[in-house]
Amino acid sequence: MQQAEQILHQYFGYQTFRHVQKQVIENVLHKKDTLCVMPTGGGKSLCYQIPALVRDGLTIVISPLISLMKDQVDMLRANGIHSAFINSTLTFSEVDAIMEQVRMNAIKLLYIAPERLENQSFCTELAQLNVSLIAIDEAHCISQWGHDFRPSYRSIQKIFTLWPKKPTVIALTATATPNVREDICNLLQIDSDSVFVSGFNRDNLSFKVLVGENKDQYIKQYIKNNPQEAGIIYAATRKSVEALHAMLLQKGVAVAKYHGGMYEEDRNYEQNRFLNDEAQVMVATNAFGMGINKTNVRFVIHYQMPRNIESYYQEAGRAGRDGVESECILLYSSSDEQTHRFLIDQSQDPTRIPIELQKLQQMIDYCHTEKCLQSYMVNYFGEQEIQDCGKCGNCADERPKQDVTEDAQKVLSCVIRMGQTYGKTLTSQVLAGARNKKVEAFQHLSTYGILKPLSAKAVANFIDFLISERLLLVKAGQYPTIFVSQEGKEVLLGKKSVFRRTIVEKTVEKIQNDPLFEQLRIKRKQISELEGVPPFVVFSDKTLRDMCEKMPMNEEEFLAVSGVGQNKLEKYGEHFIAIIKAFV
């Protein structure tokens, strides 16, 4: 570990490992197959990059996305580490040149896509190499319980037999529930004592769910208040992406777009504009972002609710990868639920529909819970609930809760009188006293119209709240039905009270920057353009902010800045020290 710590400081500019990083690296250096579950921005990459530099031989990194490979290799090369990638963007001659370097031991880390392992001639070449470590990134893709299962990941297991002695394997992911972790371990034969789970809590992120918001107006105002900050806006459909992009373009915002209906060349162009800070905002479907290593994303706004907590955690987690305070905002509408149910029902694999519907319900519950949002997600991934984060939309809402026990009893009673075999929509219409053919059969019930002052939509929102509180449960299916839980029965019997806040206040935050930070950011942009790499490859926002705090005046002080290693000191130190001296 002493050598590992020297490499950490020399190449990456950090003084110490984080607790779980150290445990994972020690396990890998002892040649034990390992599963590392660590949130986005938690430092997963170092868990295989450091062992790759300590150990002899080649490290193969299996990664699902081209953009991730390029970013990782750019950052490693910027730190003076010999690495390369092989994917579909390269010509045959370029691949041959890289493999020649690999054979000459001139490359320490080689990134490949899982599909490459289906090529028999490539596997034959691998069998001739001294491979000491195999890193499987986005390892949840190997599990049928994962939110992003990919059949190509199943071929990974075949390569373990290429060598007389199996290389050490490390699997890494940011999103793995207990079921997914167990599945990964079974498939890759990883012992339970070699599973390391870092806290899912992201201290630098503040989460917020806004219900009933004018979405377009909110987004325009938010970007107006934060004109210098990079952000991602996720929308569920290509049509929504195009409409949002056109709206922001008309407002003069430097905006890019990304979705599966665009030509690959256009997608790459738009992505690079965003990575290079030429576009402030990226509007995209979930096709964008997995593996994007842009560290200075200050906000992620979801225009619609994602399909599951894993997707939301992963997409929102693209904010604040550098550890700087950032925002994650979800603009919820009840229509989002119907959109996702339709898409799930169209799934080509019907065996996955029940799993997807259960995940969707947990996402809906997140949007209606009044508990700490960080705590909700941490609990979802199998960790004990943390103390309230104190800054998410729910924790920051200081208004007193209202006693809604009587209204809750009316809803629960109505569900029982309807036989507990109907869905939320019809139940809310009965409670609100709607007059249509479907409701006619229930007009004789004593609970018909019992919440008449409220609209059916408001009652449906209240039912969603009761579901999130586990007073009502959902029986999944093409037409989900609701029934009263044991806790709900206690409310009906008067043994338990129910409290609820009104809709969360609508606020648009403004992020502040200081003048020195802006000057350093301009210099970073100039250098990145000269070198042909994204600005965050030069230095992250966190490193620039640490410069502002420490105000280094010489090389020794500059080397003490977080994220500054020897290689970056020699390349950039003079430029940034000069700016800091002039500022003082």
Automatic annotation (TrEMBL):
It comes from the Bacteria. It is an enzyme of class 5 (isomerase). It comes from Ureibacillus xyleni. This is DNA helicase RecQ. It catalyses: Couples ATP hydrolysis with the unwinding of duplex DNA by translocating in the 3'-5' direction. The keyword DNA repair applies. The keyword Isomerase applies. GO terms for cellular component: bacterial nucleoid; cytoplasm; replisome. Its cofactor is Mg(2+); Zn(2+). Residues 510-584 form the HRDC domain. Its EC number is 5.6.2.4. PROSITE patterns: HELICASE_ATP_BIND_1 (PS51192), HELICASE_CTER (PS51194), HRDC (PS50967). It holds the Pfam family RQC.
